[in-house]
Design a protein that fits this description.
Distance between the termini: 9 Å
CATH architecture: 3-Layer(aba) Sandwich
Structural class: alpha/beta
Largest sheet: 5 strands, parallel
CATH superfamily: P-loop containing nucleotide triphosphate hydrolases
Number of strands: 5
Number of helices: 8
Number of domains: 1
CATH topology: Rossmann fold
Oligomer: single chain
Strand order of the largest sheet: 2-3-1-4-5
């Protein structure tokens, strides 16, 4: 079968990672002869920040000041993973990228390079207040109320243009899902809207 590509996008705390993992398991069960490559960029970047190198220390400074990382680091966080690991015969599930319109354009160029036809963009839509409540309950070290407010503000100014980039292209299949419902319901809705 033709391998499919799925990109999960949405506010922090919307459940992208949970839904990406559920879809990965579904694909493994539904199409056992087609491998699934799951790429989660958030952990890759957290691992990078934990190192003690010139680049990671500069990125840590930006993080500590609550700033946005430059696009080239975001692109590096996922591009080398694709270059080193993609074989071409697998479903591709992406969680955590893109976060800016220019990054979306670079991801688009990667999809074209790898001949990934009509990727699904799965936008899990939740309100700002709902997202903030979820993030505060999560109690991660970097989830202070100030940091959360900053990330949620970036969603409007940075991530929404990335979503619009895909929405405006005939090369993508856009799936909008209401994220403020039980996990199982979201998963069922996603499965009902993909052609796998």
């Amino acid at each position: 079968m033709t391998p499919h590509t799925f990109v999960f996008i949405g506010r922090s705390g919307c459940g992208k990672g949970t839904q990406a993992k559920l879809l990965t398991e579904y694909l493994k069960e539904k199409t056992p002869d087609t491998p699934v490559f799951y790429m989660e960029t958030g952990q890759t970047f957290r691992d990078f920040l934990s190192r003690n190198s010139y680049s990671s220390n500069l990125a840590k400074e930006i993080n500590e000041k609550g700033g946005l990382q430059p696009e080239f680091l975001a692109v590096w966080a996922w591009s080398h993973i694709l270059v080193e690991n993609l074989r071409g015969d697998e479903h591709l599930v992406i969680d955590g990228t893109p976060r800016k319109a220019r990054e979306a354009a670079v991801l688009d160029s990667a999809f074209k390079f790898y001949k990934r036809e009509k990727p699904f963009i799965i936008y899990i839509n939740v309100s700002k207040d709902w997202s903030k409540e979820r993030l505060l309950l999560r109690k991660r070290a970097d989830d202070t109320e100030e940091d959360i407010d900053q990330r949620l503000a970036w969603f409007e100014t940075e991530v929404v243009p990335a979503i619009d980039y895909f929405r405006g292209s005939e090369d993508y299949r856009m799936i909008d899902v209401i994220g403020e419902q039980p996990i199982e319901e979201i998963h069922r809705e996603i499965i009902s809207k993909i052609s796998v």
